Amino acid sequence: MATAMVLGTQWGDEGKGKIVDYLAQKADVVIRSQGGNNAGHTVVADGQSFALRLLPSGILFSEKTCIIGNGVVVNPEVLLEEIDGMVKKGVTISKLEVSTRAHVIMPYHIRIDEEDEKLRGDDKIGTTKNGIGPCYADKINRVGIRIGDLMDRDVFYQKLKTNLELKNRLFATYYNCEGFDFEEIFTKYTALAERIRPYVKDTEYSANQYIKEGKKVLFEGAQATMLDLDHGTYPFVTSSNPTAGGACVGSGVGPRMMSNIIGVVKAYTTRVGAGPFPAEQNNKIGEYLRETGHEFGTVTGRSRRCGWFDSVVVRYAAMLNSLDYLAITRLDILDGLDTINICKGYMYKGIELKEYPESLKVLQDVEPVYEELPGWKTDISGCKSYDELPENARYYVERISQLVGVPLGIVSVGPDRSQTMVLHDVF
Ligand code: GDP
Ligand code: IMO
Ligand code: MG
């Protein structure tokens, strides 16, 4: 079976886009199966940088099929903007498929997201305010509008009417803010629908057909394990399942078809938005990582919280996703450090925890236990093979692999395709 899956093991922004783009060179199909334009995947190809939000990171290769699966929430305006932006940069978009079953992010979802964040006050999640949570909430509540509905004028008319009646009542009485005009949204979205129509398909059938034909299919995760709605640091999570199981549900491809599950691991840790982060460094180390690594969000521009690599987190991700390999990224960002810490476990009330605790109260009080490793103090961004890496850099990634219990598959030392060392080929 020629499938592979790339997913985030920490709190996002591990470099999934880069790894997917790299593996896409040999793939035939790339599928996104969850999340929406809360994702920001930066891909650097031939010196040009592309910021992708909804389009799968295989899109830079015009001959590859790219699928936006049923589990994704689609803002049609953002999708079309992104397509137009790509075309302007010279990318040909000819083999894009958008699932009929994907849910549509409507303007009222974005407003609810903004208003809910305001109401949460100090407890705010720090969402991307793209309407992701409210759109998934409507999906779960069985009142959502799907791409297939948008394709049928009468069905869309009816569903929008029902939704807006309720949402406008909420805006007036609960949120105390302005609502939306039915005609305005209906006219705008029926026009957007016509532009999307050529891409719309029952993608679960095409995805399974591609696999049956022996095509190489790559599943691209957005967000990450610790932002998973079930397994992450709830409620400081996103509203989808970025874990391996989520890729099955969100694409309509069964678990037996999945192989080569690759967990992307940043060589240190970052997090955007609120929530627990035991290995966070609110000090010179954190500043060093933020400045050296330009750790600012692709979508929101927010500065990312930074800390040491946390093996408790990635071990948890390895278990939840049954990882086959690790793809360690951004190792080059650590080049200037004399020593580097790895979090091995957490101390809680005098006991060392090796497992990630569920309780936010416990997480608030844990003290990370660190192992100090020597730095390599060498620019590694030009290293072409694993053997060329300084011994201490090799020791660092091997120690991560050992603590997590998953073999190394890829080591990345820069954003470009050429700065990628493959220790285990998947296709
Ligand atoms: P994603 O959301 O997981 O796709 O990650 P982002 O794109 O949000 O953030 C990762 C950033 O790191 C992007 O700007 C990438 O171009 C960049 N990147 C990926 N791998 C490496 C690497 O090994 N070294 C460096 N310096 N940058 C990298
Ligand atoms: P990629 O795919 C990092 C975070 C937000 C917030 C929480 C909920 O680029 O790794 P949401 O808008 O999803 O309801 O926000 O999740 N978040 C991300 N953090 N990378 C992402 O995507 C993220 N997508 C959502 O910052 O804390
Ligand atoms: Mg990102």
What does this structure look like?
With 427 residues, the protein is an alpha/beta fold. The chain folds into three domains: 3-100 and 199-260, Adenylosuccinate Synthetase, Chain A, domain 1 (3-Layer(aba) Sandwich); 104-196, Adenylosuccinate Synthetase, subunit A, domain 2 (Orthogonal Bundle), CATH 1.10.300.10; 265-422, Adenylosuccinate Synthetase, subunit A, domain 3 (Adenylosuccinate Synthetase, Chain A, domain 3). The protein has 13 helices and 20 strands. The strands form five sheets. A ten-stranded mixed β-sheet has the order 9-7-5-2-10-1-11-15-19-20, sandwiched between helices. Strands 14, 16, 17 and 18 form a four-stranded mixed β-sheet that branches. β19 (408-412) and β20 (420-422) form a beta hairpin. The chain is globular. 49% of the residues are buried. The structure holds guanosine-5'-diphosphate, 6-O-phosphoryl inosine monophosphate (IMO) and magnesium ion. The site of magnesium ion (MG) has 6 residues, from loops. It catalyses: IMP + L-aspartate + GTP = N(6)-(1,2-dicarboxyethyl)-AMP + GDP + phosphate + 2 H(+). It comes from Megasphaera micronuciformis F0359. Keywords: Cytoplasm, GTP-binding, Ligase, Magnesium, Metal-binding, Nucleotide-binding, Purine biosynthesis.
